[in-house]
């Protein structure tokens, strides 16, 4: 086994945040990471996730403390506004650092 393969062990992969590692949730959190807040329609257009699936993923992210959900009205029209919590932002940064470490271990020296 090469030194690079040894550097990327199964424990590192297993330790990745499973909530974030799911592609749809990763896309949602990545999108929210670069904005202060976003409404449901914007997230749906940016991620390409159907409304029902997005709603399901947002419920999971909110339940795990990654996302804050605010319901409001714009005139008489309901609007759902989402933002990363401080914990969500920190967990995303940790996730990125873990991925970066794994990728660095695989890169030729």
UniProtKB/TrEMBL annotation:
Source organism superkingdom: Bacteria
SUPFAM superfamilies noted in UniProt: Winged helix' DNA-binding domain (SSF46785)
Pfam families: HTH_34 (PF13601)
Gene3D superfamilies according to UniProt: Winged helix-like DNA-binding domain superfamily/Winged helix DNA-binding domain
Domain Winged helix DNA-binding: start-end pairs: 25-101
InterPro entries: WH-like_DNA-bd_sf, WH_DNA-bd_dom, WH_DNA-bd_sf
PANTHER family per record: BSL7504 PROTEIN (PTHR37318:SF1)
Descriptive protein name: Winged helix DNA-binding domain-containing protein
Taxonomic source organism: Engelhardtia mirabilis
């Amino acid at each position: 086994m090469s030194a690079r393969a040894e550097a990327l062990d199964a424990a590192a992969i297993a330790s990745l945040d499973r909530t974030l590692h799911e592609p749809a949730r990763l896309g949602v959190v990545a999108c929210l990471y670069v904005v202060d807040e976003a409404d449901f329609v914007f997230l749906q257009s940016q991620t390409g996730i159907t409304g029902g699936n997005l709603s399901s993923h947002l419920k999971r992210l909110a339940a795990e403390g990654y996302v804050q959900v605010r319901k409001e009205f714009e005139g008489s029209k309901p609007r759902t506004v989402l933002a990363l919590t401080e914990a969500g932002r920190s967990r995303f940064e940790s996730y990125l650092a873990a991925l970066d470490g794994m990728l660095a271990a695989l890169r030729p020296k």
